[in-house]
Each structure stands twice: as structure tokens, then as C-alpha cells.
Design a protein that fits this description.
Elements lengths: L12 E7 L3 H7 L2 H9 L9 E5 L5 E9 L1 H4 L16 E6 L4 H13 L15 E3 L7 H19 L7 H14 L3 E6 L2 H4 L3 H7 L7 E7 L5 E6 L1 E5 L8 H4 L7 H16 L4 E11 L11 E3 L5 E3 L7 H14 L4 E6 L3 H7 L4 E5 L2 H13 L4 E4 L16 E2 L8 H10 L8 E5 L3 E2 L9 E2 L4 H11 L3
Parallel strand pairs: 1-3, 1-4, 4-5, 8-10, 8-13, 9-10, 12-16, 13-17, 14-15
Antiparallel strand pairs: 2-3, 6-7, 7-10, 11-12, 14-17, 18-19
Helix pairs in contact: 4-5, 5-10, 8-11, 10-15, 13-15
Length: about 450
């Protein structure tokens, strides 16, 4: 969806940002009528307190937003976006003691608060427009918002309208928009071209599996993004119960997130050589579905014993990661809605990531903090390597015992990246379970903005 800031040459009304510690001084500086109005409303600068100030003619002339305390602000993000839906139509600007990072977060949050998924039902977006604060990079903020909107739209679309073919169409449209090159391997051609596990996972569906491959950029360091594109996951023959299948339209959230990140990178014209790989499949039940105890041979040559057909995401990622690794790029990043264990560990807000390189991990953590895209580093814990070795094959796709599920999945994936020194894996959720400022309930990107912020410190751009 298109985003825009207000015309800077047009008049605008202020949104006063008032911290709790400054509320008394702010009230004292107002006119007696405004002070009486705000006092009657109980305004004390508490985080999220909102009040409109009437002008001489009774129409809203300004707005006041409580900014709370630093401790209170740490308990959430995009606090300025809270006012967007409550403001009257027109142009507005922010006034208050915000630093550049806070202004950029506020501007991005304002844009994202206007996001609506209206493919199936009309939904009016808020009509309050923000005049971009001085000193922020508006082109960058707009590119980030548009990339996030792409991710949300893809995840929110039901699987009936977002199967492997439709995901391919969105992938090709993204490539065309920025002049990228693409290659698609479909159906039985996956076997001929050396992607046996992608084919195996997707072969039972009436919608053919495929590998999507995008290349963009002609100079600079090499970055390869790999996103899990399981457009719907029944669990296969180890079928999920209804309670676990309800949100499986979002099981392509890794693909949606790397596509959103790729859009940001290409829109900003970063000086790097980008490759995006998406194994797009539907894990279905059928007479030719793969079975528990099957042993698969991967593109890498490693054999995998299937001990749960519902642990299919790591299988399709493995073939794609092996392909990525063959070129030895400067950095490989995989993103996937991979394990329920990650949600148990850190909940829906945090995006856990795995990385052996301390400098890369530190840059990602710093980037996440700077742009309100929180991450949490998890360990590639070497003692658990034996848990993914079943004895009858090289690897086990679903170790028994139920312990350390996110870690063992990450260790499994790392076995397919042996030539590239720097590899990062994100085990994301991709879903906002309840509405928060700038994040309506539904599909959401995780980690993309943190990666974008970290890239200058990770790659020599």
C-alpha cells in the first residue's frame, strides 16, 4: 500500500509530546483556558495519555500525548503511533524532546499505523497525516514502511489465494519492480536440478513446489537471503490438530519477511549484490506424501531421517541453503517460522536469532535496539549436535524428547552452510496476536528492520 508524509509546505497542527516529568511545567506554560481544560481531563503526562486542545472556534487546534517515563517507554514501542487513529483529518507535526532515533521511530510508527489489509473487506485508514520531522531520512522511512507492508500483505492473505504459484507471482512482481533477475524451478524439474527435499515436501499438493531465485545488484559485497515459503502446513501425514493448523497460512512468514527486506534494500539502492531464495511449497496429505521414517538425500548429499513430517520447513530450507552456500557469499541469512519452541522461549514479540560471529551478532542486536525491532540471540549449542544424529542417517529432522527444539532446528540448518563463514538464522513468529500501536493483529515482519540497520556494520557497503 502507498505511504506518504504530509506536504511540508502546507500548515499543520502540533502534537505535543510531554514526558511525565515535564507535565507540570508544560501545564504552567499553557494559557489559563488550556490549563483548565487539561487539568479537568486529568492530564499528567502518563504514557499514552491523549487529549485534544480546542482552538478559539472550538475545532481541534493541537493534541497532547503523554510520554511517560523512560522505564514506562521501555515496556513497548511505537508509542507516538497511538494517537494516529484518534486525530482528526489534516496535517500534524510532532513537538517535544525527541532525539533522532525517537523521531524516526515515531515517523515510521505513524505510517505503519495507517496500514490496513483491505483485500477482502474495505477498511478506512486514518486520515491524519504527519509532516516529516526535520533531520530524518524520509526516503528510508518510506522504503521500510513499504517493505513491511509487503510482508504483512503476503502473510495476511489466506492460503487459498497465496499458494506456491501466487507467492511466485508476488516474487516476480517484486523483481520486475526493481529490475532484478529471476529464475524459477518448478515441479519435477526440482529433482533434475538437485533439490530433492523441496520436491519431496511439496509433491503431495495439487500446487507444484518450486524454488524462487532472485538476483539484484552488480557491485559490492554479496548477501543471500533464504526464506521458508511453506504456504500452508497441514503437518503432512503427521497431521496437525485443528488448534495448531489455524494459523498455518503464516508458515510462509520467512519468505514474506525476506521479500520485504529485499524490497527495502532494492528501494534504497544499497551497494551490494543481493540474492533471495524461497523454497515455495504446500505440505499436504496425499497418496504420494512423504512418510515418517523415510530417509531423504539432500542437495548437500547429507541423508535425513524423517521422524516427523510436520518438521518440513527445515527440509526445504536445507536444499535452498545448500544452493546459497555453493557461491560462498559474504553473508547468508535464513528466516523461517520454524519452531513452536521459539515461541515458548521468547514469546511473540522477540525474534530469536542464531549466529557464530560475535561481531555480526552484536551489530544485529544494536540494530534491533536502534529501530525498535527487538531480537534475542540464541546459541548454536555444540553439545546438542548429537541430538540431531539418529544413527541410521546423517541427520534427524525431529529429535525425540521435546527439548531445545529451536536450537536443534538451527543446528540442523547450519549443517548445510559449510563454505560460508558468516551465517545467521532467524526463527521468527511473523504474527501479531493482538493489536498494538503500529502493529495491528495479523501478519507482521520481524528482524528485517534490524538487519537493514546492521548491514553497514556487517558488510562493507
Amino acid at each position: 500500500m502507498p505511504f506518504a508524509f504530509a506536504d511540508p509546505d502546507q500548515p499543520s497542527r502540533p502534537v505535543h509530546i510531554v514526558a511525565q516529568s515535564d507535565a507540570e511545567a508544560f501545564l504552567a506554560a499553557r494559557s489559563p483556558a488550556e490549563r483548565a481544560w487539561l487539568t479537568a481531563a486529568g492530564f499528567a503526562g502518563k504514557l499514552g495519555q491523549f487529549c485534544l486542545l480546542p482552538g478559539p472556534d472550538g475545532s481541534p487546534a493541537a493534541a497532547i500525548l503523554g510520554w511517560g517515563s523512560p522505564v514506562a517507554r521501555q515496556r513497548g514501542r511505537f508509542h507516538a503511533a497511538k494517537v494516529v487513529a484518534d486525530l482528526p483529518d489534516g496535517n500534524w507535526h510532532l513537538e517535544g524532546p525527541l532525539d533522532r532515533n525517537e523521531l524516526e521511530e515515531a515517523a515510521l510508527g505513524w505510517l505503519l499505523a495507517t496500514y490496513r489489509f483491505d483485500r477482502y473487506k474495505s477498511a478506512k485508514a486514518p486520515s491524519a497525516r504527519l509532516k516529516a520531522p526535520d533531520g530524518i531520512d524520509t526516503a528510508r522511512i518510506l522504503a521500510i514502511a513499504e517493505g513491511e507492508a509487503l510482508t504483512r500483505d503476503l502473510i495476511n492473505t489466506p492460503a487459498a489465494d497465496m499458494g506456491p504459484g501466487e507467492l511466485e507471482n508476488a516474487f516476480l512482481a517484486l523483481a520486475e519492480r526493481f529490475g532484478a533477475q529471476t529464475r524459477v524451478v518448478r515441479g519435477d524439474d526440482l529433482l533434475a536440478e538437485g533439490f530433492p527435499m523441496i520436491h519431496t515436501v511439496g509433491r503431495a499438493s495439487s500446487r507444484a513446489p518450486r524454488l524462487l531465485d532472485l538476483r539484484w545488484g552488480s557491485e559490492g559485497p554479496t548477501l543471500t537471503l533464504v526464506g521458508k515459503g511453506v504456504c500452508f502446513d497441514t503437518g503432512g501425514l503427521d497431521i496437525k490438530p485443528a488448534s495448531s493448523m489455524g494459523l498455518m497460512k503464516k508458515d510462509m512468514g520467512g519468505a514474506a519477511t525476506v521479500m520485504g527486506l529485499a524490497r527495502m534494500i532494492m528501494a534504497l539502492g544499497l551497494k551490494l549484490r543481493l540474492r533471495v531464495l524461497v523454497p515455495a511449497v504446500e505440505n499436504a496429505v496425499g497418496g504420494n506424501a512423504f512418510r515418517p521414517q523415510d530417509i531423504l538425500t539432500s542437495r548437500k548429499g547429507l541423508t535425513v531421517e524423517v521422524n516427523n513430517t510436520d518438521a518440513e520447513g527445515r527440509l526445504v530450507l536445507a536444499d535452498a541453503l545448500a544452493l546459497a552456500d555453493e557461491e560462498k557469499p559474504d553473508l547468508i541469512i535464513s528466516m523461517a517460522t520454524l519452531t513452536g519452541a521459539a515461541r515458548v522461549a521468547v514469546g511473540p514479540d522477540l525474534a530469536p536469532f542464531y549466529c557464530d560471529d560475535n561481531a555480526v551478532a552484536a551489530a544485529l542486536a544494536a540494530g534491533g535496539s536502534a529501530v525498535a525491532d527487538p531480537l534475542w540471540r540464541m546459541p548454536f549449542w555444540e553439545p546438542y549436535e548429537t541430538m540431531i544424529e539418529p544413527g541410521i542417517a546423517d541427520l534427524d529432522n525431529a529429535p525425540s524428547g521435546g527439548m531445545a527444539g529451536s536450537i536443534t532446528a538451527a543446528l540442523f540448518l547450519r549443517r548445510f552452510v559449510t563454505e560460508t563463514p558468516r551465517y545467521v538464522h532467524f526463527d521468527i513468529y511473523g504474527w501479531q496476536p493482538k493489536s498494538e500501536p503500529a502493529r495491528p493483529k495479523g501478519g507482521v515482519g520481524q528482524g528485517a528492520r534490524a538487519i537493514l540497520a546492521a548491514l553497514p556494520d556487517v558488510l562493507p557497503l
